[in-house]
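Catalogue entry: protein

Sequence with per-residue tokens
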Amino acid sequence: MDARRVATGLLVAATVTVVTACGDRPAEPAGTTGTSAGSVVVSAGPSTTSPASAATVPARDGYAAGTERRTGTDGPVTFDVGIPTVSGGSPAVAERFNSSMRASLEPQLKLPDRIQGTMTVRDGSLADGRRSGVTRLGPGVVAGVLLTSTYISRGAHPTTLIGTVVIATETARPVLLTDLFATPDAGLARLAALVKQHAAAVGTVPFLSDPARDMADWIPGTDGLVVFAGVSHAEGDYRGITVPWAELKDVIAPAMWPILTS
């Protein structure tokens, strides 16, 4: 997740002083986000198969999906979020996935210095119903999505924030979007054009001024590469756009093809 995207979303939420609802996303009532500044109090619950993780997939190749609940306060920030987790399989892969997911949450729990007020962070979702969860378990990668809903006191509405993690099971290393292509610049350009094309087909216009940054949140799907592109708040802040694998085969690096599509 791009930190600039987080800061922009929080700034927008914080600069509005009238509390109203936006579309079908109700604003949180005033006075519910207050916390006392002090030492951090964090409770990390056990990994479970929580129903809050609607995207979680069945166990496969020795791996199982779960959720780690993290709740607590950090100064003006109060949070209660389920983080996708992986257990079993390769210990190195599971640890890398879990630590990367925890790291993905950290910027979502930060209130920028310029903003005054309190902030509440809880489980989020997209307009299509997608929630946090593990989305792929082996044999090539384990992958997942973290979605939170962030509300700043006196803001007009919550803001949805996102983080994705893709770990290669052979190396236990994160897979970045630029790793997918034989020629990164050409691959990013093709993907950006296709994302815009498929987004237009469903009546939306994604924010893609900087493809490498604005398509950084992605996961390999069954039918294609899913890019979580930024959209207007009325549409849910992000939208998953699927580009079929067949449309990308000639730009994806040959060694990456079986990893992504297995």
Notes: The longest strand covers residues 63-74. The helical segments are 3-14, 91-105, 184-201, 211-214, 257-261. Residues 31 and 39 are 21 Å apart (CA to CA).
